[in-house]
Amino acid sequence: MFVSDFRKEFYEVVQSQRVFLFVASDVDALCACKILQALFQCDHVQYTLVPVSGWQELETAFLEHKEQFRYFILINCGANVDLLDILQPDEDTVFFVCDTHRPVNVVNVYNDTQIKLLIKQDDDLEVPAYDDIFRDEEDSGSDSDGSEPSEKRTRLEEEIVERTMRRRQRQEWEARSGSGSEPLAAALEKSSRLSPSPMSDRTAPSSPRRDILFDYEQYEYHGTSSAMVMFELAWMLSKDLNDMLWWAIVGLTDQWVQDKITQMKYVTDVGVLQRHVSRHNHRNEDEENTLSVDCTRISFEYDLRLALYQHWSLHDSLCNTSYTAARFKLWSVHGQKRLQEFLADMGLPLKQVKQKFQAMDISLKENLREMIEESANKFGMKDMRVQTFSIHFGFKHKFLASDVVFATMSLMESPEKDGSGTDHFIQALDSLSRSNLDKLYYGLELAKKQLRATQQTIASCLCTNLVISQGPFLYCSLMEGTPDVMLFSRPVSLTLLSKHLLKSFVCSTKNRRCKLLPLVMAAPLSMEHGTVTVVGIPPETDSSDRKNFFGQAFEKAAESTSSRMLHNHFDLSVIELKAEDRSKFLDALVSLLS
């Protein structure tokens, strides 16, 4: 059920309890976690935190700790699947779910006792009515009975109990047969429970019900940033601090950087946060002149759409920002020539452009934004500047929100083998605190490597014609041995690469039909197990609503061909697939989407 009063129905409930936090491995989830940690520290709430990168880790951690905890908080995971069916909790276990994934599973919405959704209801949720999903066909003509609500609730409970019994029978059968000892079999069995459809086989004959569910579940998209939701809770509690506001800003910026929300949604949410920035950072001129060396200031900026440019050289930033690289077509000789013309149009000496931004002449830096915007307009880049925020730590350290997103993401997705996923998560979490600026700067260096590798891989894919049309979609596969291929074995990195590749392809192709196609991309995951990661990206259009239909399509294609697929990631449009099943899986996908 949706929680209407976050203070009473959530915070005051967990305030006196020991709680367990599951936090997904994305920047918005980290920021929401930091805000919640700060609130818990204020009120001395005891909690245990476990990072989870997928459903297998979440299920394993829950089984390990379910006896010690009654209250579980899930951040950016759990809303879009039937949690009770997956985790099989005890009847007194309660889950508080703060998740941006949409659509929200209908069983989660209509479960009043164990699932509490910390989700803003002013998002366009479009949840089907209870009667349309759970009412039996034979009941439709006999609803005059006064006990109707309790009967509906009983039917929902029966659905849940029925699924629970089937699951337990399956587990007992596995235990007896020993099939659970094989990792792939177990993984695929878990994957089958992550099907987007929340209803049991009992609903299959009901065509209207199935159609309503299909319409509701066919597109995957994202709602309001979880960090923003947690900041609003802090504001309601009158415990909001400047640090919490900054984490909310970084959480929103993460959604924008990763193209998870529309430009309109981003601008609307920036407006909401801007009011809080004015409230927290309002100072008169005398106060500005007497700021302490360790103060924190957040400012609204109308800044350049260039990645890390204040911590890099302007030339490197222009070459490795997806927006400019795609529009200049920097993978071609003609594109490099256009970049030189662009710099000449601004009148910037090459020596200045290629040295670190901080070392540029002050006279050039003062008017740089205006100069770049003016020249960008001449070269067809109308939205070179974007609404964002910056933070000053004292007088020396200044970061844009996007800088922090890139740094934190790179720390979390680090391909280094000397640390586990949990180590990377903790390092990324620490980098969000001003007391760990050394980790943030290290993250910036990793981010530069990641951005360079991304643009080099895009150039390689386009120059060697690896992006091919399969009819209803474009397809690209990274081969084993491709430079930096291990950087893109992680779902977040591969998804970001795919989105940037699609933007660049749309700018490069002359085929009008291909410009409107979605992209499916595959990258090697494990040589040992013979698996690949596959992601689906919706079409790149100006009017794109960022809704992704590949979650349902992947499920159907794998089912029809018996392909060994694992839906382990929290985004349903990201799957793991046996490499030897890839050909028949793609054929089924082509047939399905044609």
TrEMBL record:
Keywords: Cell cycle, DNA replication, Nucleus. Pfam families: CDC45. Residues 134-208 are annotated as: Disordered. One of its GO terms (biological process) is double-strand break repair via break-induced replication. It comes from the Eukaryota. The keyword Nucleus applies. InterPro entries: CDC45. It is found in: Nucleus. Residues 134-148 have a biased composition (Acidic residues). Belongs to the CDC45 family. This is Cell division cycle 45. It comes from Callithrix jacchus.
